[in-house]
Structures are given as C-alpha cells and as structure tokens.
Recover the amino acids of this structure.
C-alpha cells in the first residue's frame, strides 16, 4: 500500500490504524457517528473523507454484522481499488458477502490480533498492532494483489502479517481468543455471587484472569454469535473439564486423602502448565524460555529506570516488565522477564548494586 487509505469506522481499531499509519500514508476517515469521527480526526488519525476522493485501499472497521453491507456499498461506489476489513469472524463476512452476491476479487479479509477492553476512538493507540499477528484471509476469488495489500497494511502498522483461509482463521481464534473471553467473563460474572470479602482479599491472579471481562458486551455478543459453530464445542469441552474438577473437589472435601480425586486435580494443573508454556509472551518468545527476576522497589523517582539501565549495561534484554503495586504501601514489586539463561546473573548484578532482589522467582 503506497497510496491513500480510507478507514470506514473510526472506533478502537479504525482510529488505531490511522494513528499507526501516521505520516506514511494519506489517511481518510469516515464514520456514521460524527462525534467519533471528530475524536479520531482530533487525535490526528487522519482527515475526514468527503465521500468522493478515491483511495488505493479501503479498510472497513465497523461492527462485524455490518461489515459485508459496508464493503458491498464501497465496492459499488468504486471508492478504492482494494478493500479489506478487520472483523474477528472471517467466515461470517464471507457468507454475508455471498448472500449479497458481492464480487470478491478485490476484497481480502484481515484480522489484527490486537485489542483492548476500551471501545471507541478514545482507547486507540498507534502501537496497538506492534508485534501482533495480523491474519490476511483471502476469499475464494481474491486476487494476489489484494492479499499483498493487506499484508503490506499489516506490516505498515507494525504487525506480523500471516495468511490463512477464513475457516482456519476462525478455528484458531475460537481457541485463542473467543474461549478466553467466555472464561474471563464467566469468572467475572461469578464474582457477583461471591462473598463481598472475596474481591477485597484478591491478588494479581484475579486481575490477570478477569482483565478481558471488562470488554464491550455488545461487540462480543456479535463476535461469539458469528463464530458460534467453532466456539460451542470448545466451551462444552471446558465445561466437562470443570465438571471433573468439581466432582474431584466434592470427593476431596469429605476425604482429603482420596488419591484418585487428587490425581484428577493434579492432572488438570499439570496439563495447564503445559498449555501455558505454549503461549507466546510476545511474538516468538515462549513463556517456558523466560524467567522472572523480582525486585522490591520503593516508590522513589528513578528506581525503575535504574533497574533497566543496569540490565542493559549487563547486556540483558528485558522481554517484558510487570509492576505490582502493594495497596497502601510506598513500595511495589517489579518483575523483569528475561531469557532463562540470564536470570541468575541479572539477579546477582541487581543485588550487587543495592536492589532488594526477591528470592524464589522463576
Ligand atoms: N476491539 C477489539 O479488540 C478488536 C480486535 C480486532 C478486530 N476487531 C474488529 O474490529 C471491528 C471494529 O471493532 P472496534 O473495537 O473498533 O469497534 P468500535 O465500536 O470501537 O468501533 C466501530 C465504529 O464503527 C462505526 N460504524 C458503525 N456502523 C457504521 C457504518 N455503517 N459506517 C461507518 N461507520 C460505522 C461506529 O460508529 C464505531 O465508531 C469489528 O469488526 C471487530 O470484530 C476488534
């Protein structure tokens, strides 16, 4: 993509695309909600589209159920050479386009695996797609040129382009994105029936497992509906898993020494470890390859920066960083995620320079 890009739908994803392309492409913006368009323009995501100027690529970033209708309308008006969308369900858009009888040679679906809990242009950021997979999903009949335009757009936004069929994509995201959303939301929902004290005595575990439960209910109802065929058996499988655990716990509650029940629990936890180890911490880096160096840091200027400066001086790349604030205390715990081979030497370096390194990380 070297020419201008028309973004239709200036919500979280559309506005983030405009911000990510900043300076590299001329970006034209359209939204049926004038307020949202105004916010996106005000944030520097692009200029308002007059409805006439043509673009090289049109990116449709509207809710999934409206995607095919908007694509068809833009195609009919010949506003761009190539069209793409960002819907998290690819087969549904394909079926909708088929139903509308829309020609698909110049349309290639796409899905950036990026997002956050806040919808709308206010939550948009230029770095939303940095290092994330962005899957181009050619339809039957999509031209090579249209596929290339989507992978170029993905790369220009800082993402890692991939190509998959709509069916393979939908199967993959059912497991990696849609099932996690159901689990987090269900867990969040159960907190409403828990003892009020439960949330007060919570730690980072509850934060981590419920983070995406804050997602937009309207959008996710659409997403899960559109991919129901793929998601339903996964939710049923999870329910079976939970049923076995509930049964084992029922047994253990009355006979804590029951070896078979304990084995059911342990087996689930061990398989959980194995599954978790498959999850990339960031693109290309697996959890099992990284280790944690935890440091207690007083709430003083420059202390966090000093950790990073010393890691850099020791030639250690920090893959990720987590900060846990301790409620009501002027200290927090900073966890530096580094390649396992560097864990011991970095811990020693930091301890040697006066930092309070906590034991037992890993
Ligand atoms: N939020 C995520 O995490 C995420 C991640 C990847 C892909 N997606 C996909 O991106 C798309 C948009 O999601 P979002 O999170 O940006 O939603 P959003 O609600 O933030 O934005 C959607 C925007 O589309 C506008 N709109 C609705 N109908 C329109 C029409 N007919 N013409 C022009 N504008 C119209 C709305 O006014 C709104 O500003 C969806 O297809 C979603 O599946 C979302």
């Amino acid at each position: 993509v070297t020419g201008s890009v028309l973004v239709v739908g200036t919500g979280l994803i559309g506005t983030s695309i405009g911000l990510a392309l900043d300076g590299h492409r001329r970006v034209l913006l359209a939204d049926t909600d004038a307020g949202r368009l105004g916010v996106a323009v005000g944030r520097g995501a692009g200029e308002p589209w007059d409805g006439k100027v043509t673009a090289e690529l049109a990116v449709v970033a509207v809710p999934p159920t409206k995607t095919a209708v908007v694509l068809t309308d833009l195609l009919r008006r010949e506003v761009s050479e190539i069209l793409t969308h960002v819907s998290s369900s690819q087969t549904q858009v394909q079926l909708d386009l088929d139903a509308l009888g829309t020609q698909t040679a110049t349309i290639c679906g796409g899905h950036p695996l990026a997002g956050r809990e806040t919808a709308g242009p206010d939550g948009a950021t230029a770095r939303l797609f940095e290092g994330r997979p962005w899957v181009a999903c050619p339809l039957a009949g999509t031209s090579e040129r249209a596929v290339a335009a989507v992978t170029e757009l993905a790369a220009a936004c800082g993402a890692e382009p991939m190509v998959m069929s709509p069916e393979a994509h939908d199967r993959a995201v059912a497991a990696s994105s849609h099932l996690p959303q159901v689990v987090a939301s269900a867990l969040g929902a159960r907190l409403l029936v828990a003892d009020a004290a439960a949330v007060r005595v919570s730690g980072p575990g509850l934060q981590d497992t419920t983070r995406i439960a804050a997602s937009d209910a309207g959008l996710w109802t659409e997403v899960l509906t559109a991919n129901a065929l793929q998601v339903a058996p996964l939710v049923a499988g999870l329910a079976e898993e939970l049923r076995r655990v509930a049964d084992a716990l029922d047994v253990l509650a009355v006979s804590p020494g029951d070896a078979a029940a304990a084995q059911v629990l342990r087996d689930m936890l061990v398989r959980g470890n194995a599954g978790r180890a498959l999850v990339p911490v960031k693109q290309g880096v697996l959890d099992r390859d990284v280790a944690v160096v935890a440091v207690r840091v007083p709430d003083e200027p420059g202390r966090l920066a000093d950790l990073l400066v010393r890691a850099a001086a020791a030639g250690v790349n920090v893959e990720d960083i987590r900060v846990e604030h301790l409620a009501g205390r002027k200290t927090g715990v900073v966890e530096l995620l580094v390649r396992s081979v560097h864990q011991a030497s970095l811990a020693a370096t930091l301890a040697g320079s006066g930092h309070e390194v906590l034991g037992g990380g890993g």
About this structure: The two ends are 44 Å apart (CA to CA). The first helix runs from residue 12 to 20. Residues 77 and 121 are 26 Å apart (CA to CA). The chain has a mean pLDDT of 92.
